[in-house]
Amino acid sequence: MKILIVEDDFTSRTMVYRLLKDAAECDTAVDGEEALHFFSTSIKDKTPYDLILLDIMLPNKDGQTVLKDIRDMESTAGIKGLERCSILMMTALDDSQNIIEAFRSQCEGYLPKPISKEKLIKAIHKLGIELKI
User: What pTM, to 2 d.p., does this model score?
Assistant: First the structure.
């Protein structure tokens, strides 16, 4: 299992990393540009991510744009359907406009902050991903 955690807030990023690091190989990105770099490298190296935890409010490129760019990269690489990575949006933006936009851009889940261990595990399991945390 390979996970990319995209979160600009140090405390949130560290907490999520610590929860998942023993259950999966985890990389962290602090902004949208870095996330896209990690993602494109994983595609080129044929070591794609299984799960991306993606914040919406990010510097350099927001999470909604990153989500669309990831789906475009997957499409260009011929990655479709169940082969695509699962993307779980983690954000303080819990308004219907952001939720609808994220699902239209093909995220698999939406987790409002604040994030707790229990909420994170439940959201990941809802995606059909079993992690032993």
Answer: 0.93
Name, in order, each residue with C-beta under 8 angstroms of 126's C-beta and a sequence gap of 6 or more.
109
HEC profile of 20-61: HCCCCEEEEECCHHHHHHHHHHHHHCCCCCCEEEECCCCCCC
Please give the Cα distance from 83 to 30 (Å, whole number). 25
Cis peptide before 114 (omega within 30 of 0): yes
89's tokens: 């949006």
Q: 3-class SS at 56?
A: coil
pLDDT tens digits along 37-61: 999 999 999 999 999 999 999 999 9
Tokens for 13, please give them.
Answer: 């990023």
Asked if 68 and 32 count as a contact pair (C-beta separation under 8 A), the reply is no
Tokens at 66, concatenated: 């990153």
Domains of the chain: 2-126 (3.40.50.2300)
